[in-house]
What we know:
The chain is 46% helix and 13% strand. By secondary structure, it is an alpha+beta fold. It has a two-stranded antiparallel ribbon.
Amino acid sequence: xxxxxxxxxxxxxxxxxxxxxxxxxxxxxxxxxxxxxxxxxxxxxxxxxxxxxxxxxxxxxxxxxxxxxxxxxxxxxxxxxxxxxxxxxxxxxxxxxxxxxxxxxxxxxxxxxxxxxxxxxxxxxxxxxxxxxxxxxxxxxxxxxxxxx
Length: 149
């Protein structure tokens, strides 16, 4: 039996219900959490894709968003384009996670811990400073364009 099929190799999941690839919890949904790292000269894109339950998906989401918030702003192109796009794509993942119900008991003992909420993580808060800076820059640029036309 393949683990790519709904129910996979886990006999305690309903055959029609997809299971989490980490903890075998159900229900699960296929999603891809992105992480962007804007270095001064280079940019790196990373993605963790798979089927996750609400708890494991939340842990992966918070880890990816935290890294993106504090590592994604250090290249000009990243600050204006890639990092905001990555954050928006990850917000779609968040919507998928909130639509899932809580998984059952963790029978395998491998469920990820979601940890602290995103805005209670120091590195994510540090990442909000450049986020606000980029937003202020874009607003000032828009105001300047309106004034000159």
